[in-house]
Amino acid sequence: MSFEKTFCPSPWFHMRINNTGHYEFCRWAVKTKQRNEQPCIDDINPEDFFKKNMSKIRLDMLNGIEIDGCSECKLVDKHQKVSGRQRQLLKIGVIPGNFEKSLLSSEWITKFKESLNDGSTDLMPVDWQIDLGNFCNSSCIFCNPVSSSKIATEWKKIGIIDTLPENSWCNNNEHLTKFIDLLVRTPKLKYLHFIGGETLITPAFRKILEELVEKKQTNLTIGFTTNLTVWDDYIIDLMSKFESVNVGLSVETLHSVNDYVRYPSKIQQVCEIMDKWVGVSKKFNWLAQIRITPTVFTVAYLDSVYDYALKNNLSVESCNFINEPAYMRPSLLPPELRKIAIDRLQNWVNKNNDIKTNSVIVNTRNPSSCRTQLMQDAISYIKYLTNEDYEIERLPELITFLKKIEQSRKNKILNYIPEYEEFLRSAGY
Q1: How far apart (Å, rounded) are the C-alpha atoms in residues 166 and 174?
Q2: 3-class DSSP state for residue 222?
Q3: H helical segments located in 330-394
Q4: 173, 239, 241, 384: which has the fewest Cβ within 10 Å?
Q5: Cis peptide bond upstream of 84, omega within 30
Q6: pLDDT above 90 covers what percent of the chain?
Q7: pTM of the model
Q8: CB-count exposure of residue 388 (10 Å: 0-12, 13-18, 19+)
């Protein structure tokens, strides 16, 4: 089929509402400058946006046209990492190695055919990514003011930004009520994935869960990501009412550089809370996964995360290779530091060579395939570091940022990873 390499079923069942209340067609789409030029919850209700405004996306998918914003999945596929597109294809029973036959036999084929004329559909989104705003107690080095109120305050104080981000859409009771009403009346609602900010301290997270429980709309999966700095027994009790829960445990490495990258967390406390989440997930039979965002500073220390995951039968998931901020990409590493990172990852692979990788694990949420998934993820970063172009031109921007942020935080990256000194000093650090 002509659209085999570009088709994704996601626009028939999934959408996203971002921190500012603007709609996006995909949780994995590249964050373009135009993302907030899309209609928002102020302008149109989410059901109408899904049915009407996403018609062109669906029609382009059916016509084999590459979609602006889908480049992240293309990059992930290039390095043999499991992309969002592959995950969505799996949900409708389409197998990449047998695309045409499996698509034609999918129960969704009728819905795709119904969209052939103008991209319209009578479906409703049953798979959501819900961005709850920037209410957060952390200032991760790779994050931004739209996703962290703590960063927003800091950056404005030191002059990186002039104005604070606008309030989250879910701080508006009218908007939140409208959105919850849609969820309650959506038939066969499947999955709600929440991110912040820090979800556990965001009032809207609690409100949505409470309303769904009260309205008995609990036959679905709740997914969320936490930064491992807080604990809330009430939220845990609420989530236990739902059919299943996917717990995302955000940590970059068990090396001390995690304290710098996920400032102001402390790795000892992070590990203690992570252990508690692993325990409660086993108690309720929830799916716990480690969520990583490898950067120029942490990609060489991923082996510690893989070791923890292997010991606890967890998968490690980074939905894509970091795109923004561009100066945080691991591709900034020069050959000598890449070699250190590659060697550490390769040593981990060699140490665990009993793990078989005969097939690609697309369903990374299958506990029975955690070991293979870990090996697959480690190998994808080896391939990335081996093959991705060296982006030395971004190094001055990184140095400028570090100087500003370290003056504010009174810390130094070289206190955590002294082996980076020559690399950073060469650009004026």
Answers
A1: 17
A2: strand
A3: 335-351, 370-387
A4: 173
A5: no
A6: 74
A7: 0.89
A8: middle
